[in-house]
Task: inverse folding
């Protein structure tokens, strides 16, 4: 169950950054102007993808959302 919780939490964090990015593009906010924010966004996305791949290899396919 811990793996599922971590996946959900990381997913929520990723979606938050994704929504901020979309709002930034649509309304030209200056959220994403900050280099640190871009690094965190890209880093969280890569970490999430790596987590999904690792979970698949470990045989936790049941816990992943389809």
Result:
């Amino acid at each position: 169950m811990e793996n599922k919780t971590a996946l959900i939490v990381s997913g929520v964090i990723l979606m938050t950054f994704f929504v901020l990015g979309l709002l930034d593009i649509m309304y030209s906010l200056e959220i994403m102007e900050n280099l640190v924010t871009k690094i965190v966004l890209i880093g969280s996305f890569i970490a999430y993808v790596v987590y999904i791949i690792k979970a698949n290899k470990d045989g936790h396919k049941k816990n992943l959302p389809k």
